[in-house]
Write a structure and sequence with these properties.
The structure is a homodimer. The first copy, chain A, is mainly alpha-helical. Chain A folds into two domains: about 400 residues, no CATH class; about 140 residues, Transcription Regulator spoIIAA, CATH 3.30.750.24. Chain A is built from 27 helices and eight strands. In chain A, the strands form two sheets. A six-stranded mixed beta sheet of chain A has the order 4-3-5-6-7-8. In chain A, strands 1-2 form a two-stranded antiparallel ribbon. In chain A, α7 crosses α14, α8 packs antiparallel against α21 and α22 packs parallel to α23. Chain A is elongated. The termini of chain A are far apart. Chains A, B: One of its GO terms (biological process) is transmembrane transport. Chains A, B: It is found in: Membrane. Chains A, B: It is a multi-pass membrane protein. Chains A, B: It holds the Pfam family STAS.
Chain lengths: ~575, ~575
């Protein structure tokens, strides 16, 4: 009973052996996380086009839900609002043309769908779907989104209005509004950007050179947004910036996150479904990547389906408490782990602290200029842009480079959702194109050994009558027809050949299309006076062939090794090669 | 000059060495093809919802265009209207709600798009795209379409109106109309079905038993539609069936196929584009399969891009001469080849004969009951249904079986286009799912040899400190993360392990995602005190790794063989195993 309850609620497992020492570490971690999370919650709500409290609400109950249902013991993942999902939320909702309360209600419907989809994927154990986002596509998506996020915040720095969900929409709008820039807002915004850059880069380096421990010196980097926000609040209050036309966050509803039912409008839900699916996928992939890299540091393992369920629970909690889509944040998780936090309790503590922030600090936050939040978003996301990785990927394999570049450009020029769809479709297409012309090597025997190698790379011995081919690819539908063509060509060029041995050491799968092709090849070779044989067929592949009626028609043999095949079909050549 | 002209127009190559003997064979073939084609042209035009002359027009100029631009020398492919494309044409056009001349004009626009797409694919050398239609998907599609075609023709047998492009639409409509069936029409229709079945099956068998040569006896099968059409025409004229309410083909415009410009309506063309892409793909796949199987019989080869261009030219000719989408027909091509036709001239002769049919026979065809055409369609397509193949595929690999069954059911229950899209998407998804959890075997040394085999299948010798893993799959994005997880598990279960050797004999590709994963695995193993090595890496894979910066960070070694790895990392075990 207790153990099944522990399986369902992994937080309970944490409590065994939970001591004061670990609690102290977790509490310290939670404190640092909430100091970082407070400005982020406000900023990402602004990025999503939502009022500030949506970000704070998304930082309380979702953290509890994740700690209760999803967290892996030993991994202190920091869940909550994140920049990329906030951008995706905005670009999913903007085309609907809603505003005010209707926009907020649609955001909750979207969050509900994200939560339901994640929970569904967890229950159906479909976490493998996340694998379709290849690393290059993710890298291109993150860089593209970061640039787009930065571009979308420029209007807050200028104090103007300019909407758009891709660069071709944003740039002309910003350009047209440039003359209408608001001086004081611009001063506050650029000042914040400058201060943030100084606090994050040069200052930690200076402190370190002055003899501070690196971990202490890095605190300046980590807490930079909080310092800037504090300073800006002070300035805003002293100079009464809001009365000078600088847009501020405004009144934040300080009520507790209550139970809010997302509107259940079937037409709206259907409209939002594709966006929700993409948000769920991206949020899950980001979260699982962070979880795995943190788990590896502690020699722990992550169960993807459990993680999926936890993310689903967190998003459902966000949907029912007035939040926005949530996922794990890398910067916040890293700060928690660095400070010694090791258990999901860090999420519980963070939620409690964020509740205090909501109740006690909101009257203060009212005066915070939006330009300061924009500055903190811009400086944060610019760190995510990694164009060197594009160059590295391109050099390694142009197909992957194309997928990464297309995703990046797709996000910037069309939008976040089309960008990721383009990337996934292209990476699938390019992969299939790659495997549709597999590497087929004519192989010969290495003198003095039983090994067979490509005749174009090694000085090997070839038989006159036995053609040995090694196929370096699984045989399946994209390459089934190419195999037929290639074998026909090779045999046509060698009139003395009487046997063809297909060396299957690289064949991990023969699907139904390739099975048809093999039968076709066998029949065609047969009527040309050539007998087809197989060698080095892997266990699972052979088992499957035996289950079909292939061997009822196949007159050739299946040899354990290519050497065994040659020993029987052309013993003289095999012997000569071995004794050379 | 001449040779480049010959390359552009393969028909010219045929003329070298073309003698009276071959001309005689080709003419005989053309005669048999046009006897078969005449009723088919009328029937498939009816199936596509077009007037009878569209089918005849599609049987003249397109054949000339194909013979001129596309035909492979030595392969006598019979191009023209085919049943499945006629069905696809009807289901592409019906949702537009057009009728009469507008419907005909839309059909020409569709044919134009099909021709342009095929020519474009040929010029861009994208023929490999056709490979994405796996054999199970094609098989499911053909069986499903055949059933749907048969169902769609039942209304003509009953003499009622019942539209629909899937079974859930057709069946209720037919059921409701059943009481309104027209007696004389039903008698003509069922009579034709019965006669066709007798002529195709029992009669040839009887003739053969009476001593006729099989090839002669099969003529009854081949010419059955023509005999039934002739008989029906006689009956229709004698009994004046049209005045008794039996619907007949009606007046066929007997003018020559003139130059008709398809309407160039951008909105319509955009609407028709997805359907045109599917028709082009299906037509090309069917044609290339027929060409390859006929070419193999004559020891000829087919150039896919040339074939693609020929199909494009044929469809463009159809679009500009009032036809409908065309492709190669298996039954007509087979009859031509069986009668000794061997060159593309058979298409030229067939076009000439069909011109005669159009000019001389159309006054006769006026009286042909539609029910007779419906009967010939039904009997012809029922031969395409192959449910045994579904069972065979299912038994071989359930993933392929699922794709085949889903395509078949998709076609029947939703429609031809959704059916094929479902099939292709599902076969891609299932393939990726399959490879997302690759077979990773722990291997050990076969006693007395240098070979390594799966420890679960063979009695092998394992080292205490060296873990040997064989990955039976390319390493790429769908399985990159699984590899990380699996290796972490395996190493965690073996505390004594100091070296892990990844045997890459089955790895044909390491993409950028897998490269990232390998680096992650290396770093994680390293901090756990385990060194990662590679063995038996294929040439192209190693070349690519060397081009990246992988080896700047990788501290392990790359061994030529797994045995060489063990010899260095645990020489004692390797020696003991070899001498056992």
């Amino acid at each position: 009973m207790l153990s099944s309850l522990q399986r369902a609620l992994p937080l309970l497992a944490t409590w065994r052996g939970y001591d004061r020492r670990q609690a102290g570490h977790d509490l310290l971690g939670a404190l640092l996380v909430s100091l970082l999370l407070t400005p982020q919650a406000l900023a990402y709500a602004q990025l999503a086009g939502l009022p500030a409290e949506a970000g704070l609400f998304a930082s309380i109950l979702p953290l509890l839900a994740y700690a209760l249902f999803g967290a892996s013991p030993g991994v202190a993942l920091a869940v909550g609002p994140v920049a990329i999902l906030a951008l995706m939320t905005a670009s999913a909702l903007q085309p609907l043309g809603l505003s005010g309360a209707a926009y907020g209600a649609a955001a909750l419907s979207l969050t509900l769908l994200v939560g339901l989809l994640l929970a569904l994927l967890a229950l159906l154990r479909l976490g493998f779907l996340a694998n379709f986002l290849s690393h290059p596509v993710i890298a291109g998506f993150v860089s593209g989104s970061a640039l787009l996020i930065a571009a979308s915040q420029v209007r807050h720095l200028l104090g103007v209005s300019a909407e758009g969900h891709n660069l071709p929409q944003l740039f002309p709008a910003l350009w047209a509004q440039l003359p209408a820039s608001h001086g004081p807002t611009l001063a506050v915004g650029l000042g914040s950007v400058l201060l943030l850059v100084l606090l994050r880069g040069p200052l930690p380096r200076l402190l370190q050179r002055l003899g501070l421990k690196p971990s202490r010196a890095q605190l300046s980097n980590r807490l930079a947004p909080l310092l800037v926000v504090g300073l800006a609040l002070l300035l805003s209050a002293l100079l009464q910036l809001d009365s000078q036309g600088v847009r501020v966050v405004g009144a934040v509803t300080a009520h507790l996150p209550g139970f809010s039912l997302p509107s259940f409008n079937p037409a709206l839900l259907l409209d939002l479904l594709p966006s929700a699916a993409l948000i769920a996928l991206v949020g899950f992939v980001e979260s699982i990547s962070i979880a795995q890299s943190l788990a590896a540091r502690q020699r722990q393992s992550v169960q993807p389906d459990r993680e999926l369920f936890g993310q689903g629970a967190a998003n459902l909690a966000a949907a029912f408490s007035g939040g926005l889509p949530v996922a794990a944040s890398f910067s916040r998780s890293a700060i928690a782990v660095d400070s010694g936090a090791r258990t999901p309790m860090v999420g519980v503590f963070t939620a409690a602290l964020m509740l205090l922030v909501l109740v006690l600090l909101t009257p203060l936050l009212r005066l915070l200029p939006q330009a300061v939040l924009a500055a903190s978003i811009i400086v944060a996301v610019l760190g995510l842009i990694d164009l060197r990785s594009l160059w590295r990927t391109w050099r390694y394999a142009w197909q992957d480079g194309v997928a990464q570049a297309a995703t990046l450009l797709g996000v910037l020029l069309v939008g976040v959702e089309p960008g990721i769809v383009i990337g996934v479709a292209l990476s699938l297409l390019l992969f299939l194109w790659r495997t549709s012309r597999p590497h087929i090597a004519v192989v010969g025997q290495l003198p003095g050994s039983e090994h067979f190698r490509n005749i174009e790379r090694y000085a090997v011995v070839q038989s006159e009558t036995v053609l040995s081919l090694r196929v370096d690819e699984s045989l399946y539908f994209p390459n089934a027809r190419y195999l037929e063509e290639r074998i026909a060509e090779l045999v046509a060029a060698r009139p003395a050949v009487r046997h063809l041995v297909l060396m299957c050491s690289g064949v991990n799968l023969i699907d139904a299309s390739a099975l048809d092709s093999l039968e076709t090849i066998d029949a065609r070779l047969h009527s040309a006076g050539v007998q087809l044989h197989l060698s080095e067929v892997k266990g699972p592949v052979l088992d499957r062939l035996k289950r079909s009626d292939f061997f009822q028609r196949f007159a050739g043999q299946v040899f354990v090794s290519q050497y065994a095949a040659l020993c029987q079909l052309d013993p003289q050549t095999a012997q000569q090669a071995l004794s050379r």
